[in-house]
Amino acid sequence: MNTEQKLKNVVKEKYSEIANQEKAENASSCCGATPSSNKVYNIMMDDYTGTEGYVEEADLGLGCGLPTQFAKIQRGDTVIDLGSGAGNDCFVARHETGVEGKVIGIDFTPAMIQKARANAEKLGFNNVEFREGDIDNMPVNEDVADVIVSNCVLNLVPDKQKVIGEIFRVLKPGGHFSISDIVLVGELPEALRADAEMYAGCVAGAIQKEEYLNYIKEMGFQHIVIQKEKPISIPEDILSKYLSDQKISDFNKGETGIFSITVYAEKPGGQSTKSKIKLSALQSPENSCAPGSGCC
Q1: Residue pLDDT, tens place only, 67-100
Q2: Phi-psi map region of 143: left, alpha, beta (phi>0 left; psi -120 to 50 alpha)
Q3: Any idea where the domains of the chain sit in the sequence?
Q4: Which residue of 23, 55, 130, 179 has the fewest CB atoms within a 10 Å radius of its CB?
Q5: Taking CA 51 as the corner, what is the angle to CA 46 and CA 56, rounded to the nearest 5 degrees?
Q6: Considering only CA atoms, which of 223, 220, 252 is closest in space to residue 235?
C-alpha cells in the first residue's frame, strides 16, 4: 500500500470515529483528532451561531472557517461541498440556494454520509444529497457546479493539486469556489508533520501558503482572493507531545505560522460572479433608466 493510500486510511478511520462522537468531544481537540487540551477549544473552528440555515445537529465542530459566508451563493445555484461531514455547510448553502437550487455533499467516510443523509431526511431537504467518494476523484460530471465550498478538508488530502484540478473540472465556466483551509508560513517542525494523528488533526497535512495559492493559479483560476485569514495557536500541552520545552520555545518565537485562510477564485469563461452581480444591479428597478433621462 502506498503512502498516499495509508494517509487516506488514517483520515478515514479517524473521521469514522468522529462521526459517532459528540460535538463537544470533537471541538475540544484539533479538528477532532488529537488528545484533549483544556486550551484548544475553538482554536480552529469559527462560530456558526446566528448563521441562517445552520443546523446544530449537523455541526461536528471540525471546520476552520465559514466558507459559505463568503461564497456568494445565489438563488437556484448548484453548490458542491467537499468533505461534507454531517452536512452543516450543505444546509447553510441550501438556505442560500433556496428550493430552486441543489446542494451536493461529497465525503469518503461512510459513517459521515449516513449521518448527513439522516439529517437531510429529518429536515425534509429534498434538494440536498450526499455522495460517497474521494474529492480528488469526485463522483460528479464536469461543468456541474456554480459554487464549490469546503471547510478544513483539502489539508487532509495528500494530492492537493489533484483536488484543485477536480474543482476546476466540475465547476461551470464562470463558476467559483470559497474554501477554508489550514496553511503554513515557514517550516513546521518535522516531529509534528511526521505524526499521522496530527495529520488527521489538520496541521501536519498543511502545506505552505504560497504553494497552496500557486496550485490554484497554475490550474487556471482567476480573481484569486484571500477573503479571511487568522492565525492558529497550538497550545503547549499539545506541542509537548512532539517537542522538547526548548523546541516549543523556539517554535513560539520563530517565524513559523499556522493559519486558517478562506480563499476565493473563479473559473474563466461563462459569466463570472462579479459580472452576474453587476448585471443584477443594472437590471434592478432602482437602477433602471427612464427613457430620455440620459443616465445610460
Answers
A1: 999 999 999 999 999 999 889 999 999 999 999 9
A2: left
A3: 3-273
A4: 23
A5: 75
A6: 252
**From the centroid of its chain, how far is CA 128?**
18
Q: What's the chain's Rg over C-alpha atoms?
A: 20
CATH code 3.40.1790.10 for 3-273 = no
Task: Give 291: exposed, middle or buried? Use CB within 10 Å, 0-12, 13-18, 19+.
Answer: exposed
Please list the residues that pair with 208 across neighbouring strands. 184
Higher pLDDT, 295 or 28: 28
Dihedral of CA 183/187/190/192: which sign?
negative
The Cα-based distances of 209 to 36, 119, 175, 251 in angstroms read 27, 35, 23, 18
The C-alpha cell at 216 is: 490554484
Instruction: Reduce the DSSP state of residue 197 to 3 states and report it.
Output: helix
